[in-house]
Write a structure and sequence with these properties.
- The chain folds into 2 domains: 6-112, Rossmann fold, CATH 3.40.50.300; 124-221, Conserved Hypothetical Protein Ylqf, Chain: A, domain 2, CATH 1.10.1580.10.
- Helix content is 45%, strand content 6%.
- It has helices spanning 6-18, 33-54, 74-82, 124-133, 143-157, 159-165, 172-175, 178-188, 195-207; strands spanning 62-65, 100-103, 108-112.
- It is elongated and about 70 Å long.
- The structure holds guanosine-5'-triphosphate and magnesium ion.
- Magnesium ion (MG) is lined by residues 74-75, 95-96, 112.
């Protein structure tokens, strides 16, 4: 949540709830996160616990696995829940390489898993957006293509953040194409003609929240959503 657009996060929470899912929006590193998760888990499991209690089963360990796209903070979240730095985390996709059980003193067993992506993207925007957010290894993408996708997005979404971060003239968006904006950023960063390097910097800035909070897709865009058992995805 700390990196995402708050209004768009609310829209996504509403969307997944409308599909009958239990949803909490989190900053994985926040102190309150473990409490929020355990409260939500208790609510989700309430019926199951009641049924077990009726059969006389008590103190059963809760086993849960964390799953998701690469580099979203799964291992960070689990470390927080077990209150130790056991799972390896890192500022790039593909850090967790294998399944790993983590145990807590409170009878909670958590399975960390490597990030997963679907085998192929039906809509190329899905791949572009995942690349923007850092879910795809930078070695596998064309950085300047993704930088241009980012600039195209920022032109409408938060043009001022680019002007301020890279000290561009205030009318840059009116007078320049996206390619020209990238070249202007390259020059301002002192990278001469090396727009690959500027592209990389732009993406790092975006991913670290230096260009403000952002969320690229909305539920209403209907791009590559994987709910409703839609097996096209
Ligand atoms: N700003 C912010 N950064 C986070 C958050 N959660 C994790 N991070 C950072 O994001 C990076 C990725 O975190 P990981 O926990 O390694 O992500 P992962 O989902 O386990 O990644 P893979 O194992 O590669 O799939 C690390 O640099 C974390 O410090 C969060 O909620 N907010
Ligand atoms: Mg991980």
């Amino acid at each position: 949540t700390d990196l995402a657009d708050p209004d768009r996060t609310k829209a996504w929470v509403r969307y997944f709830r409308s599909k009958g899912m239990a949803v909490v929006a989190l900053d994985s590193r926040d102190r309150k996160t473990p409490q929020i998760i355990s409260k939500a888990a208790r609510e989700v499991l309430a019926d199951k616990w009641a049924a077990l209690a009726e059969k006389g089963v008590k103190d059963k360990a809760i086993r849960a696995l964390v799953a998701g796209i690469p580099n979203v903070g799964k291992s960070t979240l689990l470390n927080h829940l077990v209150m130790k730095n056991v799972a390896i985390t890192g500022d790039r996709p593909g850090v967790t390489k294998k399944l790993q059980w983590l145990k807590t003193p409170t009878n909670l067993e958590l399975l960390d898993t490597p990030g997963v992506l679907w085998p192929k993207f039906e809509d190329q925007r899905v791949g572009q957006h995942l690349a923007m957010t850092g879910a795809i290894k930078d070695q596998l993408i064309n950085l300047d293509d993704i930088a241009l996708v980012t600039l195209k997005f920022m032109r409408d979404y938060n043009p001022q953040s680019i002007i301020e971060r890279y000290h561009l003239p205030s009318n840059a968006w009116e007078t320049m194409t996206d390619v020209e904006v990238l070249l202007a950023i390259t020059a301002k960063l002192g990278f001469k003609e090396d727009y690959d390097r500027a592209s990389e910097r732009l993406l790092i800035d975006l991913r670290r929240g230096k260009l403000g909070t952002y969320t690229v897709e909305m539920p209403s865009d209907n791009i590559g959503l994987v709910v409703d058992g839609d097996d096209n995805n």
